[in-house]
Every structure is written in structure tokens, then in C-alpha cells.
Specification:
alpha+beta; Rieske Iron-sulfur Protein; 2 domains; 3-stranded antiparallel beta sheet; 11 strands; elongated
Length: 201
């Protein structure tokens, strides 16, 4: 169909085609700019992985030994406590700031004498609650440099905070609270998942 304007014929079909083609190309250009913009706002794979749950094989941790895993950029300790270590836990409660774990530093299912799901395995974030240093594992009972009453546990090298083998803080040290127990669950007898609450909790 044609129309006349200023003595010239105007092809309206061609005009409609050009408008549609220009609109389509413009739409593709907008999408070409919008998609990368929106994608840049989404968390990266690295960021997703940093907060993702972590599976840890605990089947090869010998009794008395500590394994360090990483979750959310923090060290997480898994200690396979011996019967002797567990027997010592209740014998120094009078020297602890929070022996019954009243402060919310652990999931509800770990608010017990061992601060764990299974008594033999302690799972704790290895960062001192004072200024964020990483304590060292000092399992030897009565260590010469820590005193005859040292029951074994963790010593912060920065300012001397001490924690027992349930990651509970001793009195008269800079750290104000027990070490954090992260959410975790057992996937099997030899595997845990850190970052996910125990089923049924």
C-alpha cells in the first residue's frame, strides 16, 4: 500500500518493515547490555563456593588427632577425642567461663557436655573469640609450659587464651566466649558436612 507525500509515493509496507527491523535490532542490543549487567550482580562461583557446605572425611582421623578443614574461609577443626580426653572434660568446669555453653556459640544440638553430636568428635571453628587468631592444638595433659593442671585443649598464641577439648574458654584469659561450633551433620559414620544443620535439629 502506498501513500503520497509532497508529490512522492511512500511505501508504508517498507516503513513498517524498517520500524520492526530497527525495533528488533534495538531489542537485541538492549538484551546484549542487560544480560551481562544482571549477571555481574549475581554472586560468582567462587563466592557461592565460599559459603557452600563442605564435606569432610573423618574416617582416617586417628584417636587424639586433629584435622583442619576450610569452611567460609575459616579453619574448622575436627578432633577425634579419646576416652581419656572425654573423661577429663567434666573435671575442670569450675575453671571455665561458660561450662554449660549458655552463650549461643553452638547449634542447639551441640549444647551438651561435649559440645558435639557424637562425643568423640569435636567440630569447632578454629578462630579465637578474642581477636581472631588461630589457637594451636595442645592435647598433652599437664604440659610443662602450661602448668600441671592443663587438661589439654587449645592455646591462642596471640594473647594466651585457653580452651579445653570441648572448645570452652577458661577464666582469666582475654577471650570472652567459647569457640564457635559450626552447624554440621553426619552423612555417614565417616563423613560430616559442615555448614548444614543436623537433620531433625
Amino acid at each position: 500500500m502506498s501513500q503520497e507525500a509532497d508529490g512522492q509515493k511512500v511505501d508504508t509496507r517498507k516503513r513498517k518493515f524498517l520500524i520492526a527491523a530497527t525495533s528488533a535490532v534495538g531489542g537485541v542490543a538492549v538484551a546484549g547490555v542487560a544480560v551481562p549487567l544482571v549477571m555481574s550482580m549475581l554472586p560468582s562461583a567462587r563466592a557461592k563456593a565460599a559459603g557452600a557446605p563442605v564435606e569432610v572425611d573423618i574416617s582416617k582421623i586417628e584417636p587424639g588427632m586433629l584435622l583442619t578443614a576450610e569452611w567460609r574461609g575459616k579453619p574448622v577443626w575436627v578432633v577425634n577425642r579419646t576416652k581419656e580426653m572425654l573423661d577429663l572434660l567434666g573435671k575442670h568446669n569450675d575453671k571455665l567461663v561458660d561450662p554449660n555453653s549458655e552463650q549461643p556459640q553452638q547449634p542447639v544440638y551441640c549444647k551438651n557436655a561435649t559440645r558435639s553430636i557424637k562425643p568423640e568428635f569435636l567440630v569447632a571453628v578454629g578462630i579465637c573469640t578474642h581477636l581472631g587468631c588461630s589457637p594451636t592444638y595442645r592435647k598433652e595433659v599437664g604440659a610443662e609450659d602450661l602448668g600441671a593442671d592443663w587438661p589439654g585443649g587449645f592455646l591462642c598464641p596471640c594473647h594466651g587464651s585457653r580452651f579445653d577439648l570441648a572448645a570452652r574458654v577458661f577464666k582469666n584469659v582475654p577471650a570472652p566466649t567459647n569457640l564457635v561450633i559450626p552447624p554440621h551433620q553426619y552423612l555417614s559414620a565417616g563423613k560430616i558436612q559442615i555448614g548444614v544443620d543436623a537433620k531433625g535439629a
